[in-house]
Amino acid sequence: MLLCNLVSIAQRVGAPRIVATRGIPYPAGDPSLSPDGERAWRRQLLERALHALATPVTEPTVFDDEPAR
Amino acid sequence: MRVVHYVNQFFAGVGGEDEAGAEPELRTGAIGPGRRLASLLGDDHELVATIFCGDDYAAGNPGFAPTLIEQAKEAGAELLLAGPAFTSGRYGVACGRIVAAAAEADLPALAAMNPDNPGLAEAAGAPVVESGVTAREMGPSLERLVAAARKLAAGEELSADDGLIGNAARTNRMAERSAAERSVDLLVRRLEGDRDATEIPLPDFDQVTPAAPVSDPADALIALLTEGGFVPAGNPDRLESARATKWIRHSLEGRDSLEEGEFESVHGGFSTQWANAEPNRILPLDVARQLEGEGAIGGLHTEYFATTGNGTTVADAQRFGTEWAAELHEANIQAAILTAT
């Protein structure tokens, strides 16, 4: 699965599982947050990524919701 | 005709990657490559203003395009030119979005970029002509852009002979010969061995069949991958900062996090200050280890793979992908998380 900011391009080239991030230079971060806040955001991204990996897809799919626990 | 030119923050002279967040702006007259553009356009056309925006801003805020097009029209634009963006991905995306927004607002527009630029598809049918690979080919790229712009300004249609690339918008026109005659003609050419002749070029889509999901990430071995030019400090394997021809691997064993000073990004397509200050922003090892410790991830692969996705050719990128998949398969890895910049 792909963590990226340019979601439209990822969809167009056919990346099956996509999680949107907040900026090109920091795909797994957000420097505008406090260190703790940023780490919580990164954890959220990875939880979405794991949810995406466990979900069947047939076409490029963006996972931007919190996974159900 | 009154021409308005779009460039990014770099070619506008505002700054490099440190200014990639610059907001959209219009300035009177030609700036940077626009000066050469203006002289090539000659006396028939006047370059009245330059519009620009930081590459990161344009990539993250698609609304920059209609905003700038409105300003361009207020400045009297009758034709909009964008680029050339060469193989610069974010700049190409911005140029594509600008000409698409111009077309939407009934302003004739034309962009220039390399056929490998991912921004090509953003143009949404607005015309794009081919440019070189890097700014070293600025001269010939501007000449081609201007030649095509002259035809567009004269109301003529552009074709592949003008360097037109991408999916051109389909328009209605009268054909000299009937569809029956033309299709038989194409059939005869096919029988004679011409495999390419067509009136409807199909888009060159690469079909990717999604892999089946993992049954439970808690039982899966997962690899971390990136195209963020991510290397051990000092870049011992000499990974390229642009137009990568190779990829690298490095061990993650014994590491719970990636520390500043031990890893860095050599990517030449964005400011690496945030990546270098906190390397987990590129490769999220710290929280991946946390999730592994909590049992949410079965296990992390012992090493990461990285290349640089910056002007990289599609052919090289496909080769890296094939090699990565084979390596991961061999190591019995069930899934991968790839961060893209």
Structure description:
The complex is a heterodimer of chains A (69) and B (341). With 69 residues, chain A is of the alpha/beta class. In chain A, 36% of the residues lie in helices and 13% in strands. Chain A is built from 2 helices and 3 strands, in the order E-H-E-H-E. Chain A has helices at 7-12, 35-53; strands at residues 2-4, 17-20, 61-62. In chain A, helix 1 links the parallel strand 1 (2-4) and strand 2. The model of chain A has no long low-confidence stretch (mean pLDDT 92). Chain B is an alpha/beta fold. Helices cover 30% and strands 18% of the residues of chain B. Chain B contains 9 helices and 14 strands. In chain B, helix 3 (64-74) crosses helix 4. The longest helix of chain B is centred in the last third of the chain and has 17 residues, at 314-330. Chain B starts with a strand and ends with a strand. Classes of the chains: A alpha/beta (69), B alpha/beta (341). Chains A and B meet through strand 1, helix 1 and helix 2 of A and helix 2, helix 4, helix 7, helix 8 and strand 14 of B.
